[in-house]
């Protein structure tokens, strides 16, 4: 414990330099600005702003990413509350009571509940990361190729099964991601795969091109296709500086803590994002509300907003710990963060705390700083964020398209990457058109090479004996947890269908 405190204080020493504080503030500002725009969100914020950090040194870049990471999450909920349009799926549960609060003239209180709830969940999760991530990293040193293959399989199946109403759509999206990951030279045999004779594809498709194409360009095409079909939402008045009365704060505090308790464990497992814990937190508060003499749910219950907000940020916090300690992205946003580490030649995992300890502890310290900065930004400046929603859609999404193309071209100076960007944007549009989730695609692209390499190494060591994949207690435990999770999800979906039929 003492070593972690000393390392964290050293990290604060690196992060609290004037220039690094500027990067934290810029990251928070940009992340929130992108996250607050309808249809974008935290994963889009990280993807769009990834090329911006290439000119910075690694420490400054990741300190800026700390702000972007949480800033996007803060922004996700603003449109959910004001326009009933969640910036990301993790903010869906916040629309139910948050938008009702705004419709009843309590928009300032709703925004304050969201900001403080995100702060509570994020701070508690980041504190746990700071003290337990090194222990997780030491535990990960016992992992061999078979264990990492099991981790990847858990991530694949859990993500595909959880984030989509249809498991078939989730698996299909995962297959697309794995197919994209196979493009390029095979690292073990040296053979080229699916390059179509193009030398520029020998290194595969850059993860920045994939993420920006699927998320940003795909969203632009989707919005353009529906610009005359969807009704134009009317922004609600936000009012002056948001605030909470003492009674409202006392009512929201237990919900913030319960939501955090739901979010913490889900960030450490490959469940694909914050959807499950936010809905579980919302459902818990709703059941508790039914026992009250004067139920508030359906009228703009502050606890119905507080719990999902703290759950979402607690999940994001522990997802960062899982990424740093195990090298395992448990959400789409964490997958893009993994790509950012790889751009700087670093591989998150057990050795990251040894090889790049100064950077890791500076990043952890900047997460604390970023949460404070974001609270300062979001409470007094929420009306300004609401003004961003007044930008006409055709200007807004045209600007996003230009920014995406410039960012990709600046990173590689390759026309082929621009063509791939457009093609991947069309793919992203098709996925949205048929209701297929994007998170499995990104997880497949990121973890596909790890899964393939681990599988082939395990079989090579065992001389082709597949039982080596199940030879250790860790692999059996992981597969057992996966089986339990699949059964639990199946039972929940069957119960939901039964209720609908009734």
UniProtKB/TrEMBL annotation:
Keywords on record: Membrane, Transmembrane, Transmembrane helix
Domain of life: Bacteria
Domain DUF112: 21-442
Transmembrane segments: 21-40, 46-70, 110-133, 145-164, 171-192, 204-224, 323-341, 361-382, 394-412, 468-491
Pfam family, one: TctA
Name of protein: Tripartite tricarboxylate transporter permease
